[in-house]
């Protein structure tokens, strides 16, 4: 998965649409235009070898339409890897609605979007993402049943964050086991960057296990919520990279592992929820390997949210979702071992395993 920087670099070139699709082997892209509601959306289906393409719908005011296309292509490809490495029978897809989520959202626009999703007949299943909330999904759901991430009252799984946090916690424990020969986090110093929905649940587990937790966030209200509730230490945003720590847990935004922070990060393990933590994976993945820092690939250990919505497809049960998330521990260990044996960055080891699964299942499906 490219970082934002790489994506921006790509948008500077005048690349044709089919050239972009060929580059990462996207199956299908649907441009949705509706003049009555003002809907402009793009649905990208990257790969459906393993199952229907599932991925959230993002609403964002992109600077250009090309930016929106690049983003949806990148995000849908990321979903293919996330589902494949997590052992789910799902493909990768994503949708973007171009517009300001605070001003441009309306019931007709969302329902019209739902109609476009419906017309894909289940090949794409949508969910929430940045700029789109549960209430919006209820409108989409009025037009199509191919929606996940619904509230519990509508048979959905509700907020997936606790399940995501559980997966991150297990990925962190597997990484600790790899680093120190024991997965106990008691006494370990962990810096949690971003104390939002996932960060908070992660902190709860860490504190319970006796870890020494440092927290940072740009939102003082969010900080207050955790410092009042848990025995944690606050560090100012920007200073988290200089804490003498065992584990760095990025749970805010992506690209925080980069040229500036890698030399400063004094940790043995990086394991967090944020997507695309490596600013440039081809540069920063090897840089971490070189430095001896164990990086638990984000798209694996934050897959609890996807596992949660996947379990909605078979009738939601939180316990089942949490059980399925436990697989993240073993898969993380497998990836870290492969990385060590082959001396390759962990993100690459994860991608190789994900791609192999897709290739293997393609063969399974080659006969009726
Ligand atoms: P959230 O919006 O609830 O929390 C993010 C927190 O990060 C906020 O409190 C915000 O103030 C803080 N933040 C933003 N910029 C920051 C900065 N520069 N420094 C410090 N703090 C900063 O989001 P969330 O649902 O907790 O998700 C956290 C991350 O995990 C996101 O990157 C998200 O994409 C990813 N993720 C979440 C889920 C899920 O189930 N919620 C699933 C997979 C991945």
Put the structure in a nutshell.
It is built from 15 helices and twelve strands.
Quickly name the level 1 CATH class of the largest domain. Answer: Alpha Beta
Q: What would you give as the CATH superfamily of the largest domain?
A: NAD(P)-binding Rossmann-like Domain
Second rung of CATH, namely the architecture of the largest domain:
3-Layer(aba) Sandwich
Low-pLDDT regions:
none
The total of beta strands comes to 12
Tell me the CATH topology of the largest domain. Rossmann fold
Biggest beta sheet attributes? 6 strands, mixed
List the helices and strands and how they pair.
Blueprint: H1 4-12, H2 17-23, E1 28-34, E2 39-47, E3 53-54, E4 57-60, H3 65-85, E5 91-98, H4 107-119, E6 124-125, H5 134-141, H6 161-180, E7 189-193, H7 197-208, E8 212-216, H8 220-229, E9 233-234, E10 247-250, H9 261-264, E11 269-270, H10 281-291, E12 294-295, H11 298-301, H12 304-312, H13 318-325, H14 327-342, H15 346-364
Parallel strand pairs: 3-5, 3-6, 4-5, 7-8, 7-10, 8-9, 10-11, 11-12
Antiparallel strand pairs: 1-2, 2-5
Helix pairs in contact: 1-3, 3-15, 4-5, 6-7, 6-12, 6-13, 6-14, 12-13, 14-15
Nicotinamide-adenine-dinucleotide (NAD) binds next to helix 6 and helix 7.
């Amino acid at each position: 998965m490219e970082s934002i920087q790489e994506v921006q670099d790509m948008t500077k070139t005048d690349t044709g649409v089919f050239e972009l699709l060929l580059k990462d082997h996207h199956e299908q892209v649907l441009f949705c235009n509706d003049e009555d509601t003002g809907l402009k959306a793009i649905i990208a289906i990257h790969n459906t070898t393993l199952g229907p393409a599932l991925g959230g719908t993002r609403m964002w005011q992109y600077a250009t339409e090309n930016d929106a296309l690049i983003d949806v292509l990148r995000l849908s490809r990321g979903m293919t890897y996330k589902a494949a490495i997590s052992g789910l029978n799902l493909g990768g897809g994503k949708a973007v609605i171009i517009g300001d989520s605070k001003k441009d959202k309306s019931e007709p626009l969302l329902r019209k979007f739902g109609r476009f999703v419906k017309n894909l007949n289940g090949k794409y299943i949508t969910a929430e993402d940045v700029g789109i909330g549960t209430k919006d999904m209820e409108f989409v759901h009025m037009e199509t049943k191919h929606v996940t991430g619904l509230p519990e009252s509508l048979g959905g799984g509700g907020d997936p964050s606790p399940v995501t946090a559980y997966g991150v916690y297990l990925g962190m424990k597997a990484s600790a086991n790899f680093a120190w020969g024991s997965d106990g986090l008691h006494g370990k110093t962990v810096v949690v960057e971003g104390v939002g929905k996932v960060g908070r649940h992660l902190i709860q587990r860490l504190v319970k296990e006796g870890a020494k937790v440092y927290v940072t966030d740009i939102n003082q209200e969010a900080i207050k919520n955790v410092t009042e509730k848990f025995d944690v230490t606050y560090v100012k945003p920007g200073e988290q990279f200089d804490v003498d720590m065992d584990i760095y847990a990025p749970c805010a935004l992506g690209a925080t592992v980069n040229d500036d922070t890698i030399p400063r990060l004094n940790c043995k393990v990086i394991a967090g929820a944020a997507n695309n933590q490596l600013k440039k994976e081809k540069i920063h993945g090897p840089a971490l390997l070189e430095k001896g820092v164990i990086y638990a690939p984000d798209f694996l250990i934050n897959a609890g949210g996807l596992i949660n919505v996947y379990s909605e497809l078979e009738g939601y049960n939180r316990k089942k979702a949490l059980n399925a998330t436990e697989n993240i521990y073993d898969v993380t260990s497998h990836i870290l071992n492969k990385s060590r044996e082959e001396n390759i960055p962990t993100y690459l080891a994860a991608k190789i395993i994900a791609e192999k699964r897709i290739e293997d299942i393609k063969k399974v499906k080659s006969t009726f």
